[in-house]
Specification:
Length: about 240
């Protein structure tokens, strides 16, 4: 099992906090978002991590190598990080996952280790962490059936039809990953440069079963705006270790 973390983005919506530092190296409680994610990865026994880098990548690589000498890091560069999104970033790491089981992480999600452990414990080959709640336009939402199989995943879904938000933590098993990569490649060929990687998942959901893992009871937040960062400090990090 390996982990792939997408940390290429510029994060303009967090300026000036990210003007000179990448989002994943923003600190909360004396640790970076990246450190919290690596704590969960190491606790899960994963020692093989691919970072898809772009913006301020030298800072990220230096931090990773100095802090985690017992982890094998590989790097894939999204050279078009200013004008592309997560679909292109994950496409850049295709050779890392197409024949392998892997854990996927958006590099801007704050969560504690037990959340990743719950995703890994799922019996389903594709398990996506979902927070059940009423969502707005910004969140990536999922539509599920009575067995929590995902039949739609996108920001543009009608909120009243959705279970909640996919928070950017997932596990995917090797048998589906060739089809997953093909869908990412199709998005690229179609010129969908600003597509989120969930658009590829939405295309293959009918062929490969994707299942939601309920993590509503666990503290987590995706940090896109300054208000998210403040909420992470005041409302999410303070809940770590509870329950």
């Amino acid at each position: 099992m390996k982990a792939i973390i997408l940390v290429a983005g510029v994060s303009r919506r967090l300026y000036p906090l990210t003007e000179y530092h990448p989002k994943c190296l923003m600190e909360l409680g004396g640790r970076t978002i990246f450190d919290f994610q690596m704590e969960a990865i190491v606790a899960a026994g994963i020692r093989d991590v691919c970072l898809v880098v772009g913006y301020r990548r030298e800072q990220i690589i230096q931090h990773a190598e100095q802090r985690y000498p017992n982890v094998r890091f590989t790097y894939r560069i999204n050279h078009h990080f200013f004008e592309t999104n997560t679909a292109h970033s994950l496409w850049c790491a295709g050779d890392e996952f197409v024949n392998h089981d892997f854990v996927y992480l958006n590099g801007d999600v704050l969560f504690e280790p037990k959340l990743l452990a719950r995703v890994l414990e799922s019996p389903h080959p594709a398990a996506l962490a979902v927070e059940a709640k009423r969502c707005g336009e910004e969140e990536v939402k999922v539509i599920v059936d009575e067995d929590r199989r995902i039949h739609g995943i996108a920001k543009t879904l009608e909120p009243e039809k959705c279970l909640g938000e996919f928070i950017g933590v997932a596990r995917f098993c090797a048998p589906m990953n060739a089809g997953f990569y093909k869908a990412l490649d199709q998005l690229k060929a179609e010129g969908e440069r600003n597509a989120y990687f969930e658009a590829a998942l939405d295309r293959i959901a009918g062929e490969f079963p994707l299942h939601a893992v309920d993590v509503t009871d666990l503290p987590c937040i995706e940090i896109d705006f300054v208000s998210d960062y403040e909420s992470a400090r005041r409302n999410v990090l303070t809940r770590f270790g509870q329950g």
